[in-house]
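Standup, Tuesday
Yesterday: got the pipeline producing C-alpha cells again.
Today: sanity-check two examples.
Blockers: none.

Example 1:
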Amino acid sequence: MKKTAILLVSTLMLGVSASAMADSNRWNNHHDYKDRYDHRYDRHDHREARWSNDRGNKYGQRVVFKRGDQLPSAFRSNRYVVSNYRLHRLYEPPRGYNWMQVQGKYVLVDSKYRVYRVA
C-alpha cells in the first residue's frame, strides 16, 4: 500500500513537472522578435512611383544600356566619369569619348551621351 502511494505521488509529480516544462517552453520564446519587423519590407516604396527618368524607368530599377542608346539625363554629370580608366582595366577612350560608371557598368559615351560600348 505504501509503495503504491509513493508510486502514485511520484507519477503525479512527474506529470506536473512535464506539463510545467512544456508550458515554460512556450513562454521562453518571447524574446524572438525577428518576425515582428518583417512587415517593414513589404511596404510599397512610394519614392519609386513619383520619380522617373527620361526613359520611363523608375529610379532604383536597373537601366539596360545598348550601343546607340542615349544615356539618361540622371547620369550625365561629372561624378559618373571614370578618369582613372586603367585602374578599372579599361582602354583609353578615343578623343571626345568618356568612360562612365553607371549602375555598376562601365559605359563608353560620346560628347552627346550616346552609348558607344558597354563593358
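Example 2:
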Amino acid sequence: MKTPKILFLALILALNSCSSDTSTPDETTPTSTFAMTAKVDGTLWEMQNPFGSDYATKTLFDMYPAEQYILLQGRNSNFVDEIRLYIKRSDLKIGTYPITKNTFDASKTQVEISFNTKGKSQYPVNGSVSITTIDLSAKKVTGTFSFNCVDDDAKPISATNPITTKVTEGTFNYRYDVAGK
C-alpha cells in the first residue's frame, strides 16, 4: 500500500513542478534575425547586407570615406532594392540625427535608397536616424530610422513633387569595423 501512495505523491510533485514559461525576453534579446528591417510604403522589408550577414560594409565612394563613415547596407530579398545608412563616425553616439537632402560632401549622416522595382529614382528628403545603443567592445550599433522620398530632390515637396516613398519603422543592428570585411 505504501508504493501507490509514494507514486501518487511523486505524480503530484511532478505535476506541480511543471509550469509554462511566461517570462518576457530581456532587452538584450534581438527582436529580429535581420540586420535591418523597415516598412517601405507599408510593405515590410527584412534585410541583411549584400553578403547575407549583419556586418557593416565598406564604403565605395570618395564622398563617403571609410575613415569618416560606417555603411549599414540592407538589401531586400529580391536582391534589387536596398537601403544604405551612412553613419558619420562623429555621430556614432546615442542620439537622433536628421535626414535631409543628400549633400555628398562628407558633412553629415546620410541615407540612400535604391528602390529599383519602383521604376523611378527615389531621393530621401526628410527623416531621422536614431542610434539607441552602441557596444564599443563588441563594435555593434543599433537604432531606428524613418524617412520620406521624392522623385526630384531639386524641388521642394509640393503637389507637383509629392512624397512618393515612405520608409517607416526602420530598425538596424550591425557589427562594424569587422576585421577582413
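Quick observation on example 2: The CA atoms of residues 12 and 18 lie 10 Å apart. Confidence is low (pLDDT under 50) at residues 3-30.
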